[in-house]
Design brief:
Number of strands: 0
Helix content: over 70%
Shape: globular
Low-confidence stretches: 295-308
Distance between the termini: 14 Å
Largest sheet: none
Length: about 300
């Protein structure tokens, strides 16, 4: 990747942080705006409208041919990305409903690098000490979160769904990267995957209550979750990603759990005490270690500065 001047690098870093911070608002937007809405309907509205917004942006930036290119080159890969995105959104938003914003975000986002590292192991890539330490901390954290505590109660199902969401997001990242490595544009890939995930979840609208969408709070929440916390956030993220090294970007995306936790404490009065607090702290340390990972080496192959 060619070196950019400091001002351009700074703008790219700010764009990534801005996008990640917008991701961090999603949980609070759901719980503060439409706490009564079934999470599956929130997931459908967010992904369908957000995916459509990204496809409109893709046409504006790259032309209609970019979307056709994704579908032509992707084929099964695009479907896998859509399934992963649908599972992520449903698991993520449901975990937030069950365990609270701060803890659910930390579990989902904190476990994603661990799942991705496990996939790397199956591909013959040597684990680093950072990934090993982050995995050990995350496992210890999950154990603490699932233990019964006297000070506070954590819903085990919420923790499991957070882990499932992390796995799904890691899968989405892996299959999307395969598309990007084929030379397709980033925004169309994300738009197709997010919209596809929403369409796969949309049959749930036949039985789930969607009346919240017609309320003033519901409209505001739906627009924020889809156009801002999905559409605009991904555009800002992709713009910065194209101009910065991947390890730098993964570190900057730590803004997401930090913003989510801060908003949950200030706006939702969430508090973590006892074992959940210790578990959340371990997850955050593990996430920092995983996100500051250097490029990994494939066993028996010379390291490449651009390979993660």
């Amino acid at each position: 990747m060619p070196q950019a001047d400091p001002v351009r690098r700074g703008a790219a870093a700010a764009s990534v942080v801005f996008g990640a911070a917008l991701w961090g608002t999603a949980g609070v937007a759901q719980e503060l705006g439409v706490p009564e809405a079934p999470t599956v309907t929130v997931a459908v509205v967010r992904t369908v409208l957000g995916g459509l917004a990204l496809l409109v942006a893709a046409v504006a930036f790259d032309g209609p041919a970019a979307i056709v290119d994704v579908l032509r080159r992707g084929r099964g890969t695009t479907l896998l990305a859509a399934v992963a995105m649908g599972v992520f959104q449903l698991g993520y938003l449901t975990a937030i409903r069950l365990t609270g914003v701060a803890l659910a975000v930390l579990v989902a986002i904190g476990s994603a690098p661990i799942w991705a590292g496990a996939y790397d192991l199956t591909r013959g890539r040597r684990p680093s000490w950072r990934w090993t330490a982050a995995t050990a901390l995350s496992l210890a954290a999950a154990t603490l979160l699932l233990l019964p505590g006297e000070d506070s109660v954590v819903d085990p199902l919420g923790i499991v769904l957070g882990l499932v969401a992390g796995l799904a997001y890691a899968a989405y990242a892996v299959v999307s990267k395969h598309l990007l490595e084929r030379g397709v544009a980033g925004i169309p890939v994300m738009g197709v995957a997010i919209l596809g995930g929403g369409l796969l979840l949309s049959p749930a609208l036949a039985w789930a209550d969607v009346s919240w969408v017609a309320t003033p709070r519901g409209v505001v929440s739906a627009l924020w979750l889809s156009l801002v916390a999905a559409g605009l956030s991904y555009i800002a993220f992709v713009w910065g990603l194209a101009r910065l090294p991947t390890p730098t970007v993964t570190t900057l995306t730590l803004a997401e759990p930090l913003v989510a936790t801060l908003l949950a404490v200030v706006l939702l009065a969430e508090r973590l005490t006892g074992l959940p607090l210790v578990g959340a702290a371990l997850l955050l340390v593990g996430l920092v270690l995983a996100s500051t990972e250097r490029p990994v080496r494939r066993l028996g192959v010379d390291p490449s500065p651009e390979r993660r």
